[in-house]
Design a protein that fits this description.
By secondary structure, the protein is mostly helical. It is 77% helix and 0% strand. The protein has one domain: Mitochondrial carrier fold (Alpha/alpha barrel). The longest helix has 36 residues.
Length: 272
C-alpha cells in the first residue's frame, strides 16, 4: 500500500469516528454513569438505563447526554483514524499478495491486535477527560482494545464476506448494489460492535472503576477489580451498563462502518 493510499485510509477512519460520536455519545454517557455509580456501593443509584437517562435529562437537559462530547469528537476521530488506518495498513502487510477476498484469521487477528494496542494510548487519556486522571487504567484499556478489536474485525470481516457471498448469488442484485452495500455495512458493523462489547464488558467495567476510584492507591489490576466486583455484585455487576452499551454499539458501529466504507469509495481506495 502506497503513501497516498495509506493517507486515504486514515481520512476514511477519521470520517467514521465523527459518525460514531454523533450516533453513540449519549449511550456512552449513560454507560459510564451506570458503571461509576452502580458498582461501588450496595445501593443502586440508578434503577436502569432509562432511569439514568431520565435523571440526566431532568438535571442537565440534552447537553448532559453530550457532556464531554467535544473531547470525544477529537479523541474518537483521531482514534478511529488510527484504528481503521492502522488496521488497513497491517492487513495489507500481513496479507501480502495473497488477496482472494476470503477473510483469514492469521491476517485479521494480528492486524486488529496491533491497531487496538496502538489506539489504547490515545483512548486512555481522552476517555479520562470525562472521568479523572491521566493514564490510570492504561492496562485495562490496552486489554480491552487489543482483545475487543480482534473480536470486532473478525466478526466484521467474516459477516461481511458471508453476506456478500450469498447476496451476490441472488439474480438482479446489481440493480440495488448501493442499497445492498449499505445494508451489509449496517448489519456487519452493528453486529461487530455488539460482539466487541459482549467480549470485553467486564474489562471495561474494571477500567471505569480504576479511573474513577477516589483512592489513588487503590488497585489498578483489572483482574483484581473484576474479582472484587463479582464478589460484591455478581455477574450482573461485571456487566453493568451492558444494556445502553449494546443499544449504542449497533447504531454507532453501523454508522462508522458505512461511513468508512463509502468514504473509502469516494476516495477511490482499492480493496478486495
Amino acid at each position: 500500500m502506497g503513501t497516498g493510499e495509506a493517507a486515504k485510509e486514515y481520512v476514511a477512519g477519521f470520517a467514521a469516528g465523527l459518525a460514531m460520536v454523533i450516533t453513540g455519545h449519549p449511550f456512552d454517557t449513560i454507560k459510564v454513569k451506570l458503571q461509576a455509580h452502580n458498582t461501588t456501593t450496595n445501593q443502586k443509584v440508578y434503577k436502569n438505563a432509562l432511569h439514568c437517562a431520565s435523571r440526566i435529562l431532568i438535571d442537565e437537559g440534552i447537553r448532559g447526554l453530550y457532556r464531554g462530547a467535544s473531547s470525544s469528537f477529537i479523541g474518537m476521530s483521531i482514534e478511529s483514524s488510527v484504528f481503521f488506518g492502522t488496521y488497513s495498513l497491517m492487513k495489507s502487510f500481513f496479507q501480502g499478495t495473497n488477496v482472494d477476498g476470503q477473510p483469514q484469521l492469521q491476517v485479521i487477528l494480528p492486524s486488529a491486535g496491533c491497531s487496538g494496542a496502538l489506539i489504547s494510548g490515545i483512548l486512555c487519556p481522552t476517555e479520562l477527560v470525562k472521568v479523572r486522571g491521566i493514564f490510570r487504567g492504561g492496562v485495562a484499556t490496552l486489554m480491552r482494545e487489543a482483545i475487543g478489536n480482534s473480536v470486532f474485525f473478525g466478526s466484521y470481516e467474516f459477516s461481511r464476506y458471508w453476506m456478500h457471498l450469498h447476496m451476490d448469488s441472488i439474480p438482479g442484485i446489481e440493480k440495488n448494489r448501493i442499497l445492498n452495500d449499505i445494508g451489509i455495512g449496517i448489519v456487519s458493523g452493528g453486529f461487530s460492535g455488539i460482539a466487541f462489547w459482549t467480549a470485553v464488558m467486564p474489562i471495561d467495567v474494571a477500567k471505569t472503576i480504576i479511573q474513577t476510584a477516589p483512592d489513588m492507591n487503590s488497585s489498578r489490576n483489572p483482574f483484581q477489580v473484576i474479582s472484587l466486583v463479582y464478589r460484591k455484585s455478581g455477574l450482573r455487576g461485571c456487566y453493568a451498563g451492558l444494556g445502553p452499551t449494546l443499544a449504542r454499539a449497533f447504531p454507532a458501529n453501523a454508522a462508522a462502518i458505512v461511513t468508512w466504507e463509502y468514504t473509502a469509495k469516494l476516495l477511490d481506495i482499492r480493496r478486495e
